Amino acid sequence: MQHRPTRRVVLGLLASVAAAPAALAEAPARSLRPVARPFGGAASPGETRARLPERPESLLEGSGLSGDTAWAVADLKSGVTLEAVNGSEDHPPASVAKVLTTLYALEALGAEHRFRTRALATGPIRNGVLQGDLVLAGGGDPTLSTDDLAEIAAQLKARGLREVRGDFLVWDGALPYEFSIDAEQPEQLGYSPAVSGIALNYNRVYFEWKRAGKGYAVSMDARTERYRPEVAMAEMKLADRAMPVYTYADRGGRDSWSVSARALGRDGGRWLPVRKPADYAGDVFRTLARAHGIVLKAPKVTRDLPGGEVLAEKVSPPLAAILRDMLKWSTNLTAEMVGMAATAARDARPPASLRASAEAMSRWAATRYGMQRTAMRDHSGLSDDSRMCVNDLLGALVAAQKSGALRPLLKTIPVRDPKGKVVRKPEIHVDAKTGTLNYVSGLGGFMTASDGTELAFVIFSADTRARNRMSQAEREGSDATRHWNGRAKMFQQKLIARWGTLYGS
């Protein structure tokens, strides 16, 4: 059942917006003078529409948003753009870019595509002993978890394997290696981990601290609800300092962290990014194999896949389900891995780098949807160097909806009243992708108005000057950025309310 905002809520949103004149870079695509149409209710059509600002720019003038904002909305049935302000201006799309990545991956791989993580044997098994190497071969699955590795270990045990005479190899060459999705992000942020052809727990390791006497006991593990194996390839040391809170170093092939003991406070924990995904997966799998009675040597990482017999494998959910979760939770690692997998499928070989894959996606978007101004630097939108204009993405949304594959994957966005409270029974239904960086906010997708009118829309806002003034340490968040982003989201709600009343009554 669809939930829609009452007309009173819609008009309340709009009545709070000032109607001062403005001079924005691009005029609306057509006249926006409301045409009165009957729609019932206490107010007459003329009275209701008289409360709407004739110029959509008036909404922006009353929003208090600094920086630049652009938006566009189109009728899905006809494809006609109903309103466009600054539609050809370039903006960082933030995570709204994942909509484009979704379309790219669906076309290149197919909705039913599944990723496979395999355990290979380079020799025969005799009396429970493998006379060769065991290879944990990553297949680009962004959803691989500790539970999944435990399942592979259980399959090996069922095959009668107890010992491996050769080496234990981890292959991560299905995709290129990247130290971080966006190197400009603070090192400790779990949403910008390393990327490679194998990933475990979204390439995050759990750091936990508990008070012990006058200090703390700390641990690093690869926990799930079922397992909590400690890891050896990542370590944490306490430091007697105020700042920085975290530091990272590569020491002897290990992820070596330090943390300010003064910043820890009470017992707690957080996910930290993994910079050596293959070592991480190998470390955890070796522990799980030992728990199943299988003895392995320390893992060695290889970029060359050895041939061998498949002893066990874990198959991922279908791509459509993976993409739905990616759009719901805005998982950056998933976007990068499925984006690079799509490029690899199109080119019949892995891309040279994450950026090269993003550039290939941009060229595809220009050819497929006419997105000539789109220039992506990644597949997730985490890099603020990526650029997209609302007109480009709007055209892709209109074209993509003909297949009907995209909208069911998008998250339903709650409609809020002028005080920010979620409307329980809204008249407008919105399915879209949000995008948030410091001083960057976006929203793009589809909406159904109260009369059933289907619209596609895109909204981008960014204050790049304010963002560029931030230090790297400040990028984990601040009151100022939260305030700005809150204003941007409220402005998005006012635009949606406007469109629902103007074009859907």
UniProtKB/TrEMBL annotation:
The keyword Signal applies. It comes from the Bacteria. GO terms for molecular function: serine-type carboxypeptidase activity. Pfam families: Peptidase_S13. Keywords: Carboxypeptidase, Hydrolase, Protease, Signal. InterPro entries: Beta-lactam/transpept-like, Peptidase_S13, TAT_signal. Residues 48-58 have a biased composition (Basic and acidic residues). Residues 1-25 form the signal peptide. Residues 35-63 are annotated as: Disordered. Gene3D superfamilies: D-Ala-D-Ala carboxypeptidase C, peptidase S13, DD-peptidase/beta-lactamase superfamily. One of its GO terms (biological process) is proteolysis. The keyword Ribonucleoprotein does not apply. Belongs to the peptidase S13 family. PANTHER family: D-ALANYL-D-ALANINE CARBOXYPEPTIDASE, PENICILLIN-SENSITIVE CARBOXYPEPTIDASE A. This is D-alanyl-D-alanine carboxypeptidase. It comes from Seohaeicola zhoushanensis.
